[in-house]
From TrEMBL, chain B:
GO cellular component: a single term: plasma membrane
Protein name: ABC transporter permease
Cellular location(s): Cell membrane
Membrane-crossing residue ranges in chain numbering: 67-87, 99-119, 147-166, 203-226, 246-268
Homology family: Belongs to the binding-protein-dependent transport system permease family. CysTW subfamily.
Main location: membrane
UniProt membrane topology term: Multi-pass membrane protein
């Protein structure tokens, strides 16, 4: 069967776009190897000092640990909330489902800067109540990140529920299973993949979140993107280039692994 | 399905935590922001009046609309070029195109903005190279202006523009294209008179998504604009943190939400949500 393939002009244009997309990612590699203390292209000798400073400078290490902690807590919180909500929607199909799901998806649709102002309002108004929760605390950041990631987790879990055969739940129900047993022993094992994906996506989104974090932190809760931001705005620190190279390599490896796994699944 | 009392109880118990969480942590504080816009510094419509008369605010609004429009045209055009190959190319071309789309998509906005700083700044890759071959003597100003902002934002938004286009291109009937070619139409003519019109819904969806995203953009303009080409989102940040005028920041936020809401309503009138994924 003949197929309609792109011609030479289309291919040439696509190559230009591909170069445009990859260029800034490749540009950080030479910068990360510069021996200079400022942003510059290496002239002659190369150095790994900026990679070393990521481990030796306590500021970078502290931020990495803080971002990990916030990412894990907010990912657990948003996955649990998204899971219970989605189970309720799927098992009971209540009235006004569309409106309720629409409400839950709001933080994904509203411009991030408006969500940032909103969460800033929330955290500054509760700041006086306790010292560990509010503006510029790690728990406040974790909660704010959950608000921003829970719509994505909900979408992923709802999508994997929509592919589930309702008859297995009906069978469990007919055999007298309680709501708890149906949820934990029948439905959840069948959407494991969706739950894990939702947790991972929530973690990644929190790990790289900057728009909201800028509004709700100042000197105490310096997450990794917040530290990168400070280094980018003031005096550009080439350690950011080293960190970027590491993050790019991780992303590429994960994407290659994922495409290998899906290919194996498709061929099996 | 039976709507027994215990069913309704179960649904309420399962759905309540997330709904309560978002009401307390999102809806209630949003109403607080709306309240700020009417009460700070003095009660009344003063902040909204200021929005209509303040020249700085208006110039920022106009700049934001202009940049968003340019970025939309650039991103949708570029996305179209690479999506054609991703959807209709040979198997190897498809894998390569997918790699070029998904790798930037998954990399954080900060890393990507930093990549452009490394390329475009005065001591960056492009200026260093152009100077070393003697093409220019003084570095070109490529960042800290609108050019840098447009380049960085387009780079961020191209992958988002790809998805609606790809779904439109996947769903079109290939036989129509082959028929046009079989009847003697050239490649160019088939593309412009058959292929492009058949992906119209994808183009509209992709343009609206890109435009809506560009309106509220913060990180890329702040880094690549260097404070010289301030967009709405950065103006909100400055009004809240640098020249504390919370009322004005809140009023701009409210206007932005209303504007984006109207655009989204328009989007769903033309495109079914399914076509966007």
């Amino acid at each position: 069967m003949p197929t309609y393939r792109p011609g030479p002009v289309s291919l040439a244009l696509a190559v230009l776009v591909a170069l445009f997309l990859l260029m800034p990612l490749l540009a950080v590699i030479p910068v990360s190897l510069t021996p200079s203390r400022m942003l510059a292209m290496p002239t002659g000798e190369l150095s790994l000092r900026h990679y070393r400073s990521l481990i030796e400078d306590p500021r970078w290490l502290d931020s990495i640990l803080l971002s990990l902690r916030i990412g894990i807590v907010s990912s657990i919180l948003s996955t649990v909330l998204a899971l219970t909500f989605s189970l309720g929607v799927w098992m009971f199909q209540p009235r006004f489902t569309a409106a309720l799901v629409g409400f839950v998806l709001l933080p994904m649709v509203v411009p991030p800067v408006v969500s940032a102002v909103t969460l800033y309002f929330l955290l500054t108004s509760v700041s006086g109540l306790t010292s560990f929760f509010g503006y510029d605390t790690w728990l406040g950041v974790a909660m704010a990140h959950s608000v921003m990631t829970v719509p994505f987790a909900t979408v992923l879990i709802l999508v994997s529920l929509s592919q589930l055969d309702r008859r297995i739940d009906l069978a469990a129900r007919g055999l007298g299973a309680s709501v708890w047993e149906r949820a934990t022993r029948v439905i959840m094992p069948n959407i494991k993949f969706g739950i894990v994906t939702a947790a991972l996506l929530s973690f990644v989104l929190s790990w790289e979140e900057i728009g909201v974090t800028l509004f709700i932190t100042s000197v105490n809760a310096i997450t990794l993107p917040r530290l990168m931001w400070m280094g980018l705005r003031d005096n550009i620190d080439p350690a950011i280039a080293a960190l970027s190279v590491i993050l790019i390599i991780i992303t590429v490896l994960v994407l290659i692994a994922r495409s290998l796994i899906t290919r194996r699944k498709a061929s099996a | 399905m039976r709507g027994t009392l215990s069913d309704r109880m179960g649904a309420a118990l399962l759905m309540a935590p997330l709904l309560l969480f978002l009401i307390l942590a999102y809806a209630w504080p949003f109403l607080g922001v709306v309240k700020w816009s009417f009460t700070l510094p003095t009660p009344g419509l003063g902040q909204y009046h200021a929005l209509l008369t303040d020249e700085l605010v208006q110039s920022v609004f106009i700049r934001t609309l202009r940049i968003a429009a340019i970025v939309t045209v650039v991103s949708v055009t570029a996305a179209y070029a690479i999506t054609v190959v991703w959807v209709r190319g040979s198997p190897v071309q498809r894998v390569l195109a997918e790699f070029c789309i998904l790798v930037p998509f998954w990399i954080s906005v900060l890393t990507r903005a930093f990549g452009w700083v490394a390329l475009l700044s005065n001591r960056g890759l492009i200026n260093t190279w152009l100077q070393s071959i003697g093409f220019i003597s003084e570095p070109l100003t490529l960042v800290r202006n609108e050019f840098g902002v447009i380049v960085g934002m387009s780079h961020f938004l191209i992958p988002f523009a790809v998805f609606p286009l790809a779904s439109a291109m996947r769903s079109l009937d290939e036989r129509v294209l082959l028929a046009a070619r079989g009847l003697g139409s050239s490649r160019m003519r088939t593309f412009w008179t058959v292929f492009v019109p058949m992906t119209r819904s994808g183009i509209i969806g992709s343009a609206l998504i890109t435009f809506v995203f560009s309106l509220g953009f913060f990180v890329t303009p702040a880094i690549l604009g260097g404070g010289r080409s301030v967009m709405i989102a950065e103006l909100i940040y400055l009004r809240i943190f640098q020249s504390p005028d919370w009322g004005l920041g809140a009023a701009i936020s409210v206007v932005l939400v209303v504007f984006v809401g109207a655009l989204m309503a328009l989007l769903f009138r033309y495109v079914k949500p399914k076509q966007l994924v």
